[in-house]
Specification:
five-stranded mixed β-sheet; alpha/beta
Length: 252
């Protein structure tokens, strides 16, 4: 897992798989256009991009997505819609910046896509306690998880009506504090058109530190859990009366 800790952004960016770079670029394009920041690509076994799409559900007017302006225009659906019927999708991988929703996961299964991977949990699913339910595989890179969800949160925050911040952003302040803090450090409003890597390079010192902080927080949580429930311990007893932390011994 990438944990930050220094390094040159251009080197780190160039070392990322093409699918990761392209999916984040598509997500940034959606953000700059005022849409929901999600990008997806379909790759062959060698990692070359075969088809791509970004979320266009909230956009009208000319565009490239076959479902643009409809509730079906999720990034993964647009990427799958760009695939051809004769392609062998069983050897392909669908990459998305966020964990696919139920509709997109079902579409990937229906079309026979061999593997589905994502950079970050869907913030809406996180807020509802449903992350990980798609069966897709997380990439497991803190840097790109943070980059993907900062774009997503910003797109939702800009689109939100009313004076208060969106529920998913409030939820992230507790569930993913590093992502929320990084979001707060991004200049207000939408970014201008331009390359995604330039925007991410401007965030690099904060992004790198946030990745290190997130990795440290999760490691501390795992260590605390291991200490509370050592390997081999009967965890089924933890909810039984008299067996929790601080419980007094039962009389014999």
């Amino acid at each position: 897992m990438t944990r930050g800790g220094g390094g040159d952004f251009e080197v780190v960016w160039a070392a990322a798989p093409e699918a990761v770079r392209r999916a984040l670029t598509l997500s940034y394009e959606a953000l700059a256009a005022g849409g929901l920041a999600v990008g997806a690509v379909l790759t062959d076994p060698a990692g070359a991009v075969l088809a791509e799409g970004r979320n266009e559900a909230y956009e009208e007017g000319p565009g490239t997505g076959p479902l643009r302006g409809t509730p079906l225009a999720h990034a993964e659906m647009n990427a799958l819609g760009a695939a051809r019927t004769g392609w062998d999708l069983g050897s392909a991988t669908l990459w998305s910046t966020q964990e696919p929703c139920g509709m997109c996961a079902a579409a990937a299964g229906f079309t026979g896509v061999g593997r589905v991977r994502y950079l970050a949990p869907d913030p809406w699913a996180l807020a509802e306690g449903a992350d990980g339910s798609s069966g897709a595989e997380p990439v497991g890179e803190d840097l790109w998880l943070l980059a993907a969800n900062v774009m997503f949160l910003r797109s939702v925050a800009v689109a939100a009506a009313g004076p208060g911040e969106p529920e998913i952003l409030r939820h992230h302040r507790t569930a993913e504090p590093e992502t929320a803090a990084l979001h707060d450090a991004v200049p207000a409003g939408l970014p201008g058109a331009g390359p995604a890597e330039a925007w991410l390079a401007g965030l690099w010192p904060r992004l790198d530190r946030a990745a290190s902080a997130r990795a440290a927080r999760l490691q501390a949580s795992r260590s605390a859990s291991a200490a509370a429930y050592p390997a081999g311990a009967d965890r089924s007893r933890r909810d039984q009366p008299g067996t929790g932390a601080g419980a007094s011994a039962e009389p014999t």
